[in-house]
Amino acid sequence: MGTKRVLLVSTFLSGLLSLASVWTSLWNVWALVAVRVAMGLVQGVLFPSINPMLIRWAARGEQAKFSAVASMGGTFGTIFIYPVVGLIIKYYDWESAFVLGGIVSLLWCLFWFFLVTDDPTEHKLISKSELGYIMVRKCELKRYQAPTYQ
């Protein structure tokens, strides 16, 4: 299926489920629980799916740094979103927080669909020098890996 599609489908379904949270909460509490459990299951693929993408996009010597930055993005997002959601609830209502989250997720999917590729060699906007840097660094470091001992 490809990492791009896995992340796209997961984010798209998360956005839809965030929107559904509002209406299911007004209908039935158990329907809301089911929607939130489904959201957790759908989002369970996000962090494990990031690493294959990073391996293809980052030069070998930079993969750990890229992985750390990607992981910190989740933490930063949490730190950022809590006060924002608090302000949304204060000035609007709790439903608006879920609707806004769903809309932002769906908009993110549009950008992701058009701007992201599974492999740098498939990307239409990457410069030749950047692509060359990634590919050469992958080959150089692969040649000079430490020997394995039995």
List keywords for this structure.
150 residues, mainly alpha, 6 helices
Short description:
With 150 residues, this protein is mainly alpha-helical.
Report what the structure shows.
It contains six helices and no strands. By secondary structure, the protein is mostly helical. The protein is elongated and about 55 Å long. The mean pLDDT is 86. Helix content is 79%, strand content 0%. It has one domain.
Proportion of strand residues: under 5%
The helix tally amounts to 6
List low-confidence stretches.
none
For the largest beta-sheet, the strand count, sense and barrel status come to:
none
Number of extended strands: 0
Provide mean pLDDT, rounded: 86
Rg over CA atoms, rounded to whole Å, is 20 Å
Characterize the quaternary organization of these chains: single chain
Tally of structural domains:
1
Fold topology:
Layout: H1 3-27, H2 29-43, H3 46-57, H4 63-91, H5 94-115, H6 128-143
Helix pairs in contact: 1-2, 1-3, 1-5, 3-4, 4-5
